[in-house]
TrEMBL record:
Sample GO molecular function, one term: structural molecule activity
Keyword Transmembrane: no
Record's protein name: Flagellar hook-basal body complex protein FliE
Main localization, broad class: other
Keywords from the named record: Bacterial flagellum, Cell projection, Cilium, Flagellum
CC per GO annotation: bacterial-type flagellum basal body
The keyword Cytoplasm appears for this protein: no
Alphabetical list of PANTHER family matching this protein: FLAGELLAR HOOK-BASAL BODY COMPLEX PROTEIN FLIE, PTHR34653
Compartments (UniProt record): Bacterial flagellum basal body
Source species: Aminithiophilus ramosus
Gene: fliE
Amino acid sequence: MAERMMDLSKLALESRQGIEEPERRRTAATPFVDILEGQLMEANEQQLLSDGDMRRLATGDVNDISDVVLSVTQGELALRMVVEVRNKLVEAYQTLSRMPV
């Protein structure tokens, strides 16, 4: 019986030697901090654009008010997204801090 087990394990090893593992693709994973920083920068830029459009509207330099409304709405949505991501991060941190070690 033990001899048969050794034969099976030897057979398994021999069959694995012919199998080559596929090459793992090396992808340049972007760190989470960089992604978050990029999103914050985009939200800030959108806020600055909408602020500039509001100033131009106040001075009368705008011909089409719908562009200003669109810009302000995009800025508001970008800010909401940043706030929601922040809330989820805080919630995840609190959940982890309550876990027993």
